[in-house]
């Protein structure tokens, strides 16, 4: 009895310390972001979509209103939201989505769905590339693909100097029961971009499948334009929705480097100084939602950046993101419904600039 009596205060202390430790761990897990990199996270647009941030300028994004996706712009604080495609009768087709700024701020390249087609913008089926002016008053098609089930474009990105454009292009329609072809076969495309008296042109178009037939999604160029960042399921041997990884492609040599190996990975974006890559991953998320991670360009020093997904909470998908021009902030589209393509846009302020 004496032994049990003298142990009780000690046991009580252990329980208190255990409770405090658990409570601290719970609080840390509930934080919205990495304490090493992130200063704060704030919502700037409740109804938003895929994003691109012009250096020193506004954020472009797509948004669905009455089942129609259009292109909008807003200031980094979420104010002064304007639709720049809603009243443009030069753009023929359905949804307008996936905006990407030209570095000069005068133009954006967007996806435009062919008339009569209807699929989520993130799928790219039946889409063409268009160039629109920053105010949305002028628009010209950059591609005119055949209107067949085997065509589409996805995620255009300009190089930092604005002289090249990269995107993904479908060449074979999806086959749901064929492993690795559930989303179809896609290629990476890189072209020279220019505007002359006759309008915008894409020339010297190169079609790349660096690891053979597979799904390829373009995530744009690195800072100096020597490499293309992309995701693919070419090496996984599993269905796309189960396993997808981030790669870099040296455009001159054709050398490919695999940067991720755990979970589902997509939407990689290189920082303005070229020293970091952010991307979304299911890694560590039991609910298979995705959060932003950050790593070096060679795939080392990976660290979780956000904690949008919490145990027992609704699955969220941190999807498309974009760096500010000074590398000190990130804007991120977080989906709450994959089928309806709805979600919220957040601004993530970092503790340092990249």
CATH T-level fold name of the largest domain: Neuraminidase
Instruction: Specify the structural class.
Output: mainly beta
What would CATH call the homologous superfamily of the largest domain?
Answer: TolB, C-terminal domain
| Oligomer designation | single chain
CATH class annotation of the largest domain: Mainly Beta
Structure description:
- Mean pLDDT is 88; it is low at 1-31.
- This protein has one helix at 2-30, and strands at 38-45, 51-53, 59-65, 68-74, 82-83, 96-101, 107-113, 127-133, 139-141, 152-158, 164-172, 185-196, 199-208, 216-221, 227-232, 245-250, 256-258, 265-270, 277-281, 291-295, 303-304, 317-323, 329-337, 342-350.
- It has two domains: 1-30; 34-350, TolB, C-terminal domain (Neuraminidase, 6 Propeller).
- Strand 8 and strand 9 form a beta hairpin.
- Helices cover 8% and strands 43% of the residues.
- Strands 1-24-23-22 form a four-stranded antiparallel β-sheet, with no helix packed on it. It has a four-stranded antiparallel β-sheet with strand order 2-3-4-5, with no helix packed on it.
- It is built from one helix and 24 strands.
- It has 354 residues and is mainly β.
